[in-house]
Design brief:
mainly alpha, de novo design (two linked rop proteins), single chain, elongated
């Protein structure tokens, strides 16, 4: 399979989220927000993978739109964890840059597919 930027980046992001979840639970004893982030942050890559076998262009757009919603939710949880002092500035800046990049890539793909659709 050829290199797929969004597939690879969403998978690497999911791995970071799993590790962050483990850190927050073990080191910070934070169990609620981290679980929300785990769910939304790993869902991005899952929806990207589902989109690879979409039944139609509309289905592809729908699945990637869900991935974008999950990315937006993940950004919310990351912001909340930072502003409630569970993440320090260095941790925050690193992971927020990744989610912003994912959102930009997904948005660009969606815009491109919607133009092709019309």
């Amino acid at each position: 399979m050829k290199d797929n930027l969004i597939r690879n980046k969403s998978f690497v992001f999911a791995l970071r989220i799993v590790k962050l979840f483990q850190y927050l639970q073990q080191e910070k004893k934070e169990f609620v927000l981290s679980k929300q982030l785990l769910r939304s942050g790993t869902s991005i890559g899952a929806m990207v993978r589902e989109s690879e076998h979409a039944e139609s262009k509309a289905d592809f757009i729908h699945k990637l739109s869900i991935a974008l919603k999950e990315a937006n939710e993940s950004e919310y949880w990351i912001d909340l964890l930072y502003h409630s002092n569970y993440l320090d500035e260095k941790q925050y800046e690193s992971i927020i840059a990744d989610i912003i990049e994912l959102k930009r890539i997904i948005t660009a793909i969606l815009l491109s597919m919607k133009k092709k659709k019309s």
